[in-house]
Structures are given as C-alpha cells and as structure tokens.
C-alpha cells in the first residue's frame, strides 16, 4: 500500500462533526423603542405624571382664555374651596380602588355622619367634642360594615356598597326627619362644627381651613401608603390578592382596615362639609359618590387596583375644579361643563388602559 489509511475510532466521530459546526454565538436582537414607547414606559413608572401634566395644561389654557380673572387670588382659592369636600371623598375612594374595589357609599356615610354630629351637638346638647368623636367612630363603623361584608360574605364591593348606600341614605332621612339644621342654630349651639369654613388671609388670597385639611389628609394618607408596610400590603392586594395571601399578607384583615380608614376619612369630610355649606342638609352631596370616582379616575389611579398614587386623586379633583371654573369664566353653559368632564373621564381611562399595556 502506497498510502496508509488511518481509521478514526467510531466513538470520536463527534469531533469531526464539531469541527464542521457553526461557530457563531447566539445573540438577541435589540428592539429600538420609539418615542411613544419611552413615554408609555415613563408614565407606567410614574402614573401621577399624567394628571400633573393635564392640570398644568388646563391652568395655562384657561388662563389664556379667561384672562386675568382666572389667575386672581380669589378665583384660585375659590377652586380649592369648591373641591375640598369632593377631594376628601376622593381620598377615601382612592383607598378602596387601590385594593381593586369601589365604594358607592362614601357620600352617604359623610352626610349621615354630619347629621349625627349635628343632631347630637345642636338638638341634644352633647358637647361638640364628643359629638365629633361619635361621628368619627360612626364613620369607622360604617366602613367596618362594608369591609366585613366584602371579606366574610365574599360579595363584590360594588354590590355591597350599592346596598349600604341606600341603607345609609335611608338612616340619614330617618334621623334627620328630612329636615336641615339651620346655620343660625349651629352658630348658637355648636359653632365649632363650622370651623373648617373659616378662613385666613394669605396676601390677597382667602384660604379656608377646609382647604388645608384636604391637603393634610392627602399627604398623611400618601405617607401611610408609601412609607409603611401596611401601605405596601394595600398595593399588593390590589395588584393580586391571591399572590398577596401566598406571600403571608392577611388580606381580609387589611381590607377591613382599609374600609374602616375610608369611613373615618368620610367622617372627617362630614365635619368639613358643615363649614363648607354652612348648614347640615340630609340631601347634600347626593352626587358625591360619582364625583369622587371621577377625581380618582382622572387622577390616574387604576380602576383595576394596585397602581397609582393617592396624590393623583388630589390632582384629579383640582383638574375638575379648574375645568369648571375656567369654562364658567369663559361663559360656557353648565350643561357643556358636565359634557367636557364626561369626555375627560373617558380620556383618562383610555390613557390608563394604554399605560397598562407595558405590564401586559
């Protein structure tokens, strides 16, 4: 043999195959995100940014349309006064919506507690301090009832609070006899009930204590939700209740606490409402439930729970106030003011749905 053939052992055939294999390293393609994708991601990380932008644009636009009247100290402080009660109701509503629930009874709780406080202090001569404490306890008890039925009876929050809305409203009419308590009677027997209607001068502006109360309540709740373990539990329940339970969170207890806190905020709003309208009417703020939901939705808090900042509800209430004031100064009829707010709600929910696609 002129050439010696060297045979390779059969077990080493893989080496020849390896030599002929593709040497390229696997890599992943980087998708180049567009401007809208970056905006979407930024808004998902900071949902409060949307209502802040809308509020600033609204102020600028209506300032141009209405001129100097809109930026007057009187008008700006008037907007704060007008949204102070709905803002407090929106704070209570935000707590519930963050847990993926909804509360249709917030306004009914507020009016019922104002009737209880007023009757005790004005009609029965109970010291105002104790009348207020009983009202606060009553608000917490009303919230406890809502939370108990949601957690123990496993009923949807919408159904529970729809029922208690009617219950509280009926109790309100029964306790008040469908009669208002006049401003003169409050002044004579329990003037402290109107404390949050009083104001102080800040330059040329007239600021009511009720406006300051709204801001204090919002920042207190913001601290509670963002700087405590309890607040993180609230967000976790809203995001995924079953996952929160698996993580060891006592979801039912936390939910009851959330509803009780919301009831307490409604009772605080009841005290503030007496000063705002100057009397106690069993039929006041009948649309407060829907107005509070409007402020929350426009404020960027997701109706699906677990996302959004409670400060967004404050901005949402201010946006509605700015819209109503600006359109009024521009000579727009009240009918079209409601029309504009309706489209604002639809736009806010549409933006929320678009932002949520980031996490889908």
From TrEMBL:
UniProt topology in membrane: Multi-pass membrane protein
Annotated CDD domains: TM_PBP1_transp_AraH_like (cd06579)
Protein name, UniProt field: Fructose transport system permease protein
Cell compartments where the protein resides: Cell membrane
Entry keyword set: Cell membrane, Membrane, Transmembrane, Transmembrane helix
Lineage, broadest ranks: Bacteria, Pseudomonadati, Pseudomonadota, Alphaproteobacteria, Rhodobacterales
One annotated GO molecular function: transmembrane transporter activity
Keyword rRNA processing part of the UniProt annotation: no
Organism domain of life: Bacteria
Stored InterPro entries: ABC_transp_permease
Transmembrane annotation, as ranges: 49-71, 78-98, 104-122, 129-149, 155-175, 207-225, 256-274, 295-322, 334-355
One GO cellular component, as annotated: plasma membrane
């Amino acid at each position: 043999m002129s050439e010696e053939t060297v045979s390779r052992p059969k077990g080493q055939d893989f080496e020849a195959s390896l030599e002929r294999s593709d040497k390229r390293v696997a890599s992943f393609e980087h998708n180049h995100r567009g401007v809208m994708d970056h905006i979407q991601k930024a808004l998902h990380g900071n949902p409060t940014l949307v209502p802040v932008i809308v509020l600033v644009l609204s102020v600028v636009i209506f300032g141009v349309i209405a001129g100097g009247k809109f930026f007057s100290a009187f008008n700006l402080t008037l907007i704060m006064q007008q949204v102070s009660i709905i803002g407090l109701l929106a704070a209570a509503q935000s707590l519930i919506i963050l847990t993926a629930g909804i509360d249709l009874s917030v306004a009914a709780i507020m009016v019922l507690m104002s009737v209880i406080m007023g009757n005790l202090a004005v009609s029965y001569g109970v010291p105002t301090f104790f009348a207020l404490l009983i009202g606060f306890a009553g608000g917490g008890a009303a919230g406890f009832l809502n939370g108990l039925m949601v957690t123990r009876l496993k009923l949807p929050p919408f159904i529970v609070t729809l029922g208690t809305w009617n219950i509280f409203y009926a109790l309100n009419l029964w306790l008040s006899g469908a009669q208002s308590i006049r401003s003169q009677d409050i002044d004579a027997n329990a003037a402290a009930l109107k404390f949050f209607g009083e104001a102080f001068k800040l330059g040329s502006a007239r600021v009511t204590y009720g406006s300051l109360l709204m801001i204090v309540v919002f920042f207190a709740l913001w601290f509670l939700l963002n700087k405590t373990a309890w607040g993180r539990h609230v967000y976790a329940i809203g995001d995924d209740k079953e996952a929160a339970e698996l993580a060891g969170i006592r979801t039912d207890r936390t939910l009851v606490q959330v509803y009780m806190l919301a009831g307490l905020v409604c009772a605080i709003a009841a005290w503030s409402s007496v000063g705002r309208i100057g009397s106690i009417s069993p039929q006041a703020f009948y649309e407060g439930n829907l107005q509070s939901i409007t402020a929350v939705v426009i404020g960027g808090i997701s109706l699906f729970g677990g996302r959004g900042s409670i400060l967004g509800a404050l901005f949402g209430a201010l946006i509605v106030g700015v819209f109503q004031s600006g359109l009024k100064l521009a000579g727009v009829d009240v009918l079209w003011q409601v029309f504009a707010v309706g489209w604002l709600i639809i736009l806010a929910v549409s933006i929320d749905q678009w932002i949520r696609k980031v996490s889908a």
